[in-house]
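Exam revision sheet. Question 4 asks you to relate a sequence to its structure. Input first:
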Amino acid sequence: MEARSEHNKFWLNKWSSNAIGFHEDFIHPLLKQYWSTIDSAPRSNVLVPLCGKSKDLLYLRDQGHNVFGIEISEIAIVAFFAENKIAYEKIQHPNHDIFQGEGLTVYRSDIFNFPKKILPKIDVIYDRASLIALSGRQRKNYSDWLTTSTQSGCESLLITLEYDEEKLSPPPYLVDKMELAALYQDNWLITHLGQHSALAKGHQARENAYLLNRK
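Answer key, structure tokens:
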């Protein structure tokens, strides 16, 4: 519990101080490249955990899907709707808030304290910067959370990061193929789609794209 509290405080402080070098002000190229590998019907329900104010939400909505994000920082959520000129309604609840705009719903909540019963049936998960934002044991808790929040047939487009740990300190966290298998292989089929050069905090890194299929 203490580690989770510190994690939440860390990211809330990042948003409140505008220290958001991790935010990409463009649609991630690997999302565009690999989204077609997802066998999603029109109007699928797509979940984007720890979504920040990512423009990837817009891309997914523009593919004709219902997009649901979960984000702990209200600053990030309000900025997303304001910067993209999307009108929204805010619905307050005791331990979470719901921000609803056209084709988009973003929940303000700690993901590990999120009331899953309010989620619709999730068809697809898009994870570019969620798993790699979490440290140690939290990654196992996160993968378990996704497994228990989905049903057989759900797909996930997952992007992980590898880098020279002597040159770069986390976050983002390095997640290699061995750890990924330990986290997911019991409940998901894992397909490696490709590896690509990337930058992380100004250093050379490698992004790996995976397709996960819920067993």
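Marking note for examiners. The helical segments are 2-16, 29-34, 56-62, 74-83, 136-148, 177-184.
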